[in-house]
Structure prediction request, 122 residues.
Amino acid sequence: MAAERPAGVQTLRITLDADQAASTATKAHCLIEGSLNERIGKLDGKPYAIKFRMRLPQAADWSGKFFQESVGGSVGTLTPTFGLTSGMTTSAFSRGYTVITGDSGHASAINTGPKTSTGVQV
Prediction:
């Protein structure tokens, strides 16, 4: 008998798991993309999920550190995910960090949300 998933358990789906060759800009690494808690909104019928992108250095290049890249605002898109934010001269990834970013469950192209009378998204 197959075990049933308990109510409220979020799903994890990996959509990309690919080795990335070294280039002039980056060392070789693994790029992983996926989503958590895919579902259809009960009120609007739109698809929702928390999407993420993660770059993992090869073991020999890993510093043992982790960098959570933030994008601010209402998010809505995934960044290139190298861990380069304002004030930094080198990316966290180039210093051996594993770097991850996410869209916080808000996909700008799909989940546009209500707008004010002037057309500004709230």
Remarks:
- The radius of gyration is 18 Å.
- DSSP finds no helices and five strands in the chain.
